[in-house]
Write a structure and sequence with these properties.
By secondary structure, the protein is an alpha+beta fold. It has 27 helices and 33 strands. Strands 12, 13, 14, 15, 16, 17 and 20 form a 7-stranded mixed sheet that branches. Strands 2-1-26-27 form a 4-stranded parallel sheet, with helices on one face. Strand 12 and strand 13 form a beta hairpin. The protein binds one RNA strand of 86 nucleotides through helix 7, strand 13, strand 17, helix 11 and strand 29.
Length: about 800
RNA sequence: GCCGAGGUGGUGGAAUGGUAGACACACGGGACUCAAAAUCCCGCGAUAGCAAUAUCAUGAGGGUUCAAGUCCCUCCCUCGGCACCA
């Protein structure tokens, strides 16, 4: 053991970091049981890591070390999600190739990470911008294309005028670009789109099988937005034209007093171009259309906005049940992109319709009566289910019965059918920017769209003079004639490459597979290695509740259907972490000047103290403000651990501590084991502190107790644990030892304290041998002065006794 | 508006229906020191009291229970997600 020096993390930590790497301590892949622990890999930005980033990495690292100690072969890799706008913007500004900037940033990130002491297997490091990586991103895209899941669309998409690129629905936040906050416009453009909606049902269904936080599942459910309803046909009077309407409340249809279509609805264009009949107030309608076009989606959907619309004079809709002629309106509160782009107006039972009807003085007919006892509120629509009234033969049915019967009737009459609708839109997959994976397709004059043959993958991103977006809807790649002009791989004729690139989210949609064998992604296809490692057992991260998780699930499910992967879901368990905010309560950001560099903290307190503090701050799922003052606490704790060595007796295997001490040790084993498994690191650490505080008071600590404590500490503070472990004479790394098991019998303490209550109020506590029976405890309690004083001769009505916990006397 | 997570000391936070405030930070007092830092010991929800102790106290108000931070009902507030989705 030698003479003990002061605890000096600054020399001790780098020493072990090197040693672990050299010996490959964390590459125990030959073990039988596997555990795949994955972090959401970072985007290597120019500003480097701040103390918020490592929170998730520390958690996954603790979990990985714990699982390795439990005997698992743990895969815990790290890589870089390096395509995307920031690197490109940096490149434009500084006139360097984005790949150069990315390389530099990755080096910074790695240097920062290395100091915290992670178990990452750097032999499996990946980078989404590596052509050998994106060869497979392109390959997967081609498989989708071949199955008809990638298609060209020419309809209007979301266009960010500042980023000068098309965006997916998921990239918007309240009608603004999530990246730059610009108001997004609608722009008709040629786009590649992935048919993610084809997987809507499967993604929804399989959420049930996942161990994910309820909130994230719910966000996914909302995003997919499945709703069951009825599609109803309203014929346009005196024509063969029809307006199809989607509703979830067909039971209210007798209250339908008008029909509304979206401005983009095909009927409008068609009826405007008819000369003889059709819309009579064409000028008015055209005027409204013009106004709508000028509005952004943001303005159209603004919450407080009053509903506007215009009647289509000369057009009437036939009510499918009553054959009444109803007025038809065009209004921009109806969205073309959802349902059929047309709705039936039931003002008595829908808030929006009610508002609209009030404004345009439309008739309001109540057809749903509230269930017994309830009174409808005056001057407000009744939007709940109830019992049908004034609905001919459907009168008297409940809403639910009516929906079924009415839908059945409509089906029979060929006037409608059951229909499921989703909010989820297909994924706009092309970007008109430089720094992304080229879409591996070729446009041939003769053959049309032709895939790049597999042997020609990857389609490498060529060098360009300017990374600046062109703004024309073409990417900067379009300017490189030598790259764009190719021979058609099928007919050898004149052809051009697709110049759009893939979005930021492409590379991260399958990266967890690449880690399984980063040098040979054929594993994807041949399957053996994939089968051994998948699924990811625990996925740790935050901030991407919908986009990344929904995209990755979609790609994975596609690959599953192709037989390329063996599991229907990629991430079995998800641990979603809270952000670390700056001490001012804001997000840590260069912009606010409130960033704290983890390496500064490590420099001052040591990596182990830093790791402990990040986990001790509070519950893992909760956002929390950083406070460097707290660091001193975990550092002091480690100093105590360090000094404990002096109390270790040479007496080898035997335990010398009291029974109560043994009980505490075993309680701690149980607590730490269970808490790590459930990601409750803060309470695991506090129980370790309790143990250390107690050991400190012992005159002697047995070797076995001490070493057990070191193992319990090692996932959290690996460096100090390894150092002290070695000082105990161990030749092999502590991380190749075994996680202790608790002994139920030893957990039971010799003595326990029992609270004695009178009428539920604690009056005294008794220390009694564990397992004492009620009679014994009651006798002791009634003999206690404090109790007799309170009883004051009153009659005891009842006594409740909970073993080893409480005795309640009711008087 | 809908969905999700919350509301506990000066602060971060603990509490299978069973002694509310574990653990830690800050703070106050003491020891050591010429002095400081570090370290160690003691105290630390509020009110009253020299004290023993008593009363009150987990966003607000009701309820269930021998016993409620925890379960039920009504309401308020904070954070996160979604939102003219028919």
């Amino acid at each position: 053991m030698g003479v003990q020096k002061a605890y000096q993390p600054r020399s001790l930590e780098p020493k072990w970091q090197k040693e672990w790497l050299k010996k490959g301590i964390y590459q125990q892949y030959s073990r039988k049981k596997k555990c795949y622990v994955l972090d959401m890999f970072p985007y290597p930005s120019g500003s480097g890591l701040h103390v918020g980033h490592p929170r998730g990495y520390i958690a996954s690292d603790i979990y990985s070390r714990f699982k390795q100690l439990e005997g698992y072969g743990v895969l815990h890799p790290m890589g870089w999600d390096a395509f995307g706008l920031p690197a490109e913007q940096y490149a434009i500004k500084n006139k360097v190739h984005p790949a150069v900037a990315v390389k530099k940033n990755i080096a910074t990130f790695k240097r920062q990470l290395a100091k915290i002491g992670f178990t990452y297997d750097w032999e499996r490091e990946i980078n989404t911008t590596d052509p050998e990586y994106y060869r497979w991103t392109q390959w997967i895209f081609l498989q989708m294309w071949k199955k008809g899941l990638a298609y060209q669309s020419f309809s209007p998409i979301n266009w960010c005028p500042s980023c000068q690129t098309g965006l997916a629905n998921e990239d918007l936040e309240q009608g603004r670009c999530e990246r730059c906050d610009s108001v997004v416009e609608k722009k008709p453009m040629r786009q590649w789109v992935l048919k993610i909606t084809a997987y809507a049902d499967k993604m929804l269904r399989d959420l049930k099988t996942l161990e994910w936080p309820e909130g994230v599942k719910e966000a996914q459910r909302n995003w997919i937005g499945r709703s069951e309803g009825t599609e109803v046909v309203f014929y346009v009077a005196d024509t063969e034209e029809e307006i199809r309407v989607f509703t979830t409340r067909v039971d209210t249809i007798y209250g339908c007093t008008y029909v509304v279509v979206a401005p983009e609805h095909p009927l409008i264009n068609q009826q405007l171009t008819i000369n003889s009949q059709g819309i009579k107030n064409k000028a008015e309608v055209k005027g409204y259309l013009e106004k709508t076009k000028k509005k952004t989606d943001l303005e159209r959907t603004a919450l407080s906005k009053e509903k506007t619309g215009v009647i289509l004079e000369g057009i009437e809709a036939i009510h499918p049940f009553t054959a009444e002629r109803l007025p038809v309106y065009m209004a921009d509160y109806v969205l073309e992109s959802y349902g059929t782009g047309a709705v039936m107006g039931v003002p008595a039972h829908d808030e929006r319709d009610f508002e609209f009807a009030k404004k345009y003085d439309l008739s309001i007919q109540s057809v749903i009566a509230p269930p017994r006892g309830q009174q409808p509120v005056q001057d407000q629509p009744f939007i709940d289910d109830g019992v049908l009234i004034d609905s001919k033969e459907f009168t008297g049915l409940t809403s639910q019965e009516a929906r079924e019967k009415m839908t059945a009737w409509l089906s029979k009459e060929k006037l409608g059918k059951k229909k499921v609708n989703y909010k989820l839109r297909d994924w706009v997959f092309s970007r008109q920017r430089y720094w992304g994976e080229p879409i591996p397709l070729i446009h041939c004059e003769g053959c049309g769209v032709v895939p790049v043959p597999e042997r020609d993958l990857p389609v490498k991103l060529p060098n360009v003079k300017s990374y600046q977006p062109t703004g024309t809807g073409e990417s900067p790649l379009a300017d490189i004639a030598s790259w764009v002009n190719v021979k058609c791989p099928e007919c050898g004729g004149k052809a051009k490459r697709e110049t759009n690139t893939m979005p930021q989210w492409a590379g991260s949609s399958w990266y967890y597979l690449r880690f399984i064998d980063p040098h040979n992604t054929k594993a994807l296809v041949d399957g053996k290695k994939e089968k051994k490692m998948m699924p990811v057992d625990v996925y740790v991260g935050g901030d991407h509740a919908t986009r990344h998780l929904i995209y990755a699930r979609f790609w994975h499910k596609f690959l599953y259907d192709q037989g390329a992967v063996s599991t229907p879901e990629p991430f079995q368990r998800l641990e979603f972490l809270g952000l670390i905010l700056a001490s001012d309560g804001r997000k840590m950001s260069k912009r606010w000047g409130n960033v704290i560099d983890p390496n500064d903290v490590v420099e001052q307190f040591g990596a182990d103290a830093f790791r402990l503090y990040e986990m001790f701050m509070g519950p893992f799922t909760q956002s929390i403000a950083w406070n460097t003052d707290g660091m001193i606490g975990t550092r002091r704790f480690l100093e105590k651990v360090w000094k404990l060595e002096r109390q270790v007796t040479v007496n080898k295997k035997q335990t010398t501590e009291s029974k109560n001490m043994q009980s505490l040790l075993h309680q701690t084993i149980k607590k730490v084991t269970e808490d790590i498994e459930s990601f409750k690191f803060n309470t695991a650490i506090s129980s370790l502190m309790i143990l250390v505080n107690a050991l400190e008071k012992e005159s002697h600590i047995s070797l076995i107790t001490y070493q057990t404590s070191l193992i319990l500490l090692s996932p959290f503070a690996p460096h100090i644990a390894e150092e002290l472990w070695e000082r105990m004479g161990n030749k092999q790394s502590i991380f190749l030892s075994q996680w202790p098991k608790w002994d139920k019998k030893k957990i039971v303490a010799e003595t326990v304290t029992i609270a004695v209550q009178i009428n539920g109020k604690v009056r005294t506590v008794l220390t009694v041998p564990a397992g004492s029976d009620e009679a014994t405890v009651q006798a002791l309690a009634l003999a206690d002065v404090k109790i007799t004083a309170h009883l004051d001769g009153k009659k005891i009505r009842k006594v409740i006794y909970v073993q080893d916990k409480i005795l309640n006397v009711v008087v």
